[in-house]
Amino acid sequence: MYSMTTQIAGRRLAEKQPADNQLQAGWCARLAGDRNRVVLADGRDERVLAAAAELAGLGIVPVLVDEPAEIRRSAAAAGVKLPSDVVILAPEQVRRSGAGELLAERAAGRKPGTAEAWLADPLFLAMAALAADDADACVAGANRPTADVLRAALRVVGTAEGSDCVSSSFLMHLQDGRTFGYGDCAVLPEPDAGQLAEVAVATSRTFAALTGEEPQVAMLSFSTMGSADHASVSRVREATAIVRDREPGLAVDGELQFDAALLESVARSKAPDSGVAGHANVFIFPNLAAGNIGYKITQRLGGAAAYGPILQGLALPVNDLSRGCTAADVVNVAIISVLQSQTSVTRLGPSGL
């Protein structure tokens, strides 16, 4: 049942910048009344504090992990008034809870001092709070490199059952209203065929969860249906076959050049028998270089809004922020993370690494 507060918050988001925020407004409408909890690991950062205040207004419960006095001091210095809905967890409070016990267990058997270091680190404490079900999702990285966030997530939260790798995708929202999924653009430099297939499946699920659209997956290459031959082309073909075997109900085809995947006029001549060519909405790049360049071209030359990187393959929703993020970025990533918790995650317990 929708709460009046959350309905108003959803309308406020839609009215603020109609052209840019219809996607976010739809997400907020789906979350209305659920009181989802997202733990924010960078609790003293002024951008995170501003985002926490806005998230509380949207009906999401922000959980900040750090010393309460330091958080309030930072909020006052930034001119941010934290609503009463914002939860502040002192590190000692986390250490003495089930989250602290879980973190100590995860550190067992590692080099001396690991447990002490993790129990003193807000990033690891935030991951433990998520793993202990004190939050539904975790957002981190405003002040930490991606490698730190991924390391903490893998060691505390672990990978999802059946997942062999962690990957990422971007949701690209174009000015004409179309939305596309891009993967992998941030994590795997040179995926093998099995990893590339996993990226395709994960990205298709992320896209469906966030847009409600049926994914049409194009496995991209510089070749279309045998027009060229190379080891990288063979890897894309092999990955396509793995996806078809693993997910027989998923619309996927490859190898396809980008123009053949996107444009019906090109698809008719290059891939006339393809069920995906000409109307793909999920694009799987053959390696990280192509994916990273591709999303930035779409964003910078095409004027698209880029939501991501959205991490995939973890047991629970964790997402990484750029250290150059804005408060609005934190809000968007938090909303996406909570949606992931509702649509694709089950709490079977972390596998750990």
TrEMBL record:
Catalytic activity: acetyl-CoA + phosphate = acetyl phosphate + CoA
GO molecular function, one term: phosphate acetyltransferase activity
SUPFAM superfamilies: Isocitrate/Isopropylmalate dehydrogenase-like
InterPro entries to which the protein is assigned, alphabetical: P_Ac_Bu_trans, P_AcTrfase, P_AcTrfase_dom1, P_AcTrfase_dom2, Phos_Acetyltrans/Butyryltrans, PTA_PTB
Residue ranges annotated for the Phosphate acetyl/butaryl transferase domain, each copy included: 32-337
E.C. no: 2.3.1.8
Alphabetized Pfam families for the sequence: PTA_PTB
Gene3D superfamilies reported in the protein's UniProt record: 3.40.50.10950, Isocitrate/Isopropylmalate dehydrogenase-like
Keywords: Acyltransferase, Transferase
Top EC class, one word: transferase
PANTHER family recorded: PHOSPHATE ACETYLTRANSFERASE, PHOSPHATE ACETYLTRANSFERASE EUTD
Annotated family: Belongs to the phosphate acetyltransferase and butyryltransferase family.
Protein name per its UniProtKB record: phosphate acetyltransferase
Organism: Crystallibacter crystallopoietes
